[in-house]
Structures are given as structure tokens and as C-alpha cells.
Amino acid sequence: MHEMSLVQSLAAQVRALAEQHGASRVNVVSVLMGPFAGVVPDSFRFAFEALQKEDPLLAGAVLELRQPDPRYLCLDCGEACTLPQPGPEAPETQARCPACASPRLSPWGGTELILQQIRME
After folding, report:
1. Measuring CA to CA, which residue among 50, 61, 67 is closest to residue 17?
2. Which of 19, 38, 39, 91 is most open to solvent, judged by the fewest CB atoms within 10 Å of its CB?
3. How far is CA 112 from CA 37, 67, 91, in A?
């Protein structure tokens, strides 16, 4: 599970920032996780919760995962579009370009895993 190593790196970054700002406790850690980042959100959250038990600085901190809908580039007309991820409210169907209805879509961006914000005291 590579999510554990990602969370360990995140925790090191959070510890460095907390030390830099003289904080003794982290309340919220906000992370942007792109839809094509290759990270399983539930595994990432599980790894974060496991690490919290060992790290007093992160004990009780809330992990906010922000997961934007995927963006695509149409290979036929060149239109960029954002389509909802499949789920209960958006059943899985073949994605199509809203401009030309082509199914030839290529993922566009969305590979990021970014620490966006930390709330600490």
C-alpha cells in the first residue's frame, strides 16, 4: 500500500510547517487529490488514521480530502470538459464530450496530490 508512504511524507511536511510556525497541535489537514493521482482515498484516509495514533502532533486532526471531478480533453474536437465521477448520483456510463458527443476523451491533468491547507494552534 503506497498510500502509507504518501501519508508519511505528508506528515513530515506537516511537522516541518508546524515547527516553523511554533504550533503544538494540528487541527485540520486539507489535501487536494486529483482523480487520476493513482491513490485510493479510503486507503489514504486509513493510513492517515493509523499514523495519527503514533504522532501526538496529528492526534485528533481532521483529514479533509478534496477530490475534484475528472477533466478530459476531447480527441475529436479539442474541447476540454469536466465530467462527474461515477457514483450513486451519476451512474457509470461511457463518458462523452458535451460539445460533439465523441467518446474519445483523454484524461487532462488530475494527477496532483497537494497539501492545500493546515489549521494548527
Report:
1. 61
2. 91
3. 6, 10, 25
Per residue in 74-98, pLDDT tens?
A: 999 999 999 887 655 555 567 899 9
* Residues of the chain where predicted confidence (pLDDT) is lower than 50: none
DSSP state of 87: S
71 contact partners, CB below 8 Å, separation of at least 6: 80, 81, 82, 83, 107, 108, 109, 110
| Cβ 32 vs Cβ 112: under 8 Å | yes
Residue pair 81/72 in contact by the 8 Å Cβ criterion: yes
Instruction: Identify the residue whose cell numbers are 487536494.
Output: 32
Model pTM? 0.83
